[in-house]
What we know:
Elements: E1 9-10, E2 23-31, H1 41-60, E3 67-71, E4 80-84, E5 92-96, H2 119-124, H3 134-137, E6 158-165, E7 168-176, H4 182-196, H5 203-209, E8 253-260, H6 262-274, H7 285-301, E9 310-317, E10 335-342, H8 343-348, H9 351-360, H10 364-380, E11 399-403, E12 423-425, E13 435-438, E14 447-454, H11 455-462, H12 465-470, E15 472-473
Amino acid sequence: MDGSQPQPLVLDVFGQSPSLQIYTQLCFCFALPDHDRESNTTAAVVVDTLSEALQRLTTSFPWLSGQVVNEHSGPGDTGVFMIKPSNEPPRLVVRDLRKNSSADPKDTRDTSGASVPTMTSLRRAHFPFTLLDETLIAPRNTIPGTYGESDIAVSPVFLVQATFIEGGLILTFVAQHATMDMIGQGHIIRLFDKACRKEKFTAEELAAGNIARRDIVPLLDDSYQPGAEVAHQIVPAQPAVETVAPPSPPPPSSWAYFAFNPNALMALKSLAIQTLPPSSTFISTDDALTAFVWQSIARTRLPRLSPTTPLTLGRAIDPRAYLDIPSTYPGVVQNMTYHTYTAQQLADAPLGHVAAHLRAALDSSTFRFQTQAFATLLSRTKDKSSVSVSATLDLTTDIMLSSWAKVDCCNLDFGLGLGMAEAVRRPRFVPVESLGYLMPKARDGEIAVGIGLRDEDMERLKGDEVFGKYAVYVG
């Protein structure tokens, strides 16, 4: 032992984006056994299991206990983001709200009137956004500083919260987004499940989980000059300050889940296949569902838009396979494909045509080049706030959609003796208009789609007959 301190881990090129200095959350809703309503035996076992698992996990993957720091930043330079090591395991937050009708008074955050749910109320309502508020069930807010959150000077990589409610346990995993995307976070959650069971990590898991990140994404050579392939990712130049009008307040917006059961998903894919253009032979269920959600939102917006208004979908794609990066790489590997129709064209197009358009953008050589071009541009740019996957999206008309449907985590029980989670959801956070998520596919095949929309659009979507034929409003 030479007594030297572990070196900071410089994040990969996508992790250098300032827009990723937020948190991504995923919660698992478990039922507690009836006998534990009067006893703390199960709760104590759960807390001990989680605490010991976190210690085992960070012994093998030390970066999970670190903090994200920024160095060498200055005017016109966003600096370098890295993980600073820590000798402490990730914080496990335990909140027992079984006998509370309000939030824990020790919490420094304003819970915005959030009430504590019971497992029965969650189950009856099918686990809606409205009953899964981040200020109650997550140790950090998605957007630091929102809802009165004050302790934001430190950015821990990974945290876990166990929230005990009447009849249930909500287990929430929170990751600093610059350190991992949802593919990576899902993998870490699966490793945590192994740690809970005291299973050994494989050599492959240890190697992929601790790999150096700085040069993981293959960049294009010095001859590359940015072109149309990155046009969507460069923030437009701002007009002179004296000509800028004061921004209008954002319209009232809210989150809602819509559930698509397996029969609805099969019917949607069948409809899309029946209406494919002659040049297309394959689409996935994800293509069909994404196309359907986008078209349905377009219909809700027609009353407030011109039929010729261009509407763009930014669809998040995992590029690991395109870049020969291991599927178990835990960091951030991100890009979007971009698709534009006029409002009327999108609303009227056959579902199969839109789904085929989404699928065509995933051509392996094209998407590989586009992702390398985006990464190369980001690596060359000192002020990385000028480059972003959402740079040119107008969220009053466009949408961003990320699919977590293939994140394999709904079959985990973390060795807690509670069985499988009844639902896996993203908790509610500050409403973001035009942002959507496809939740991990449930064990029965259901996919819950979480959507943030301005209230007038949300009301029209809830009442849309075509959408309601396949989707069940959850809230």
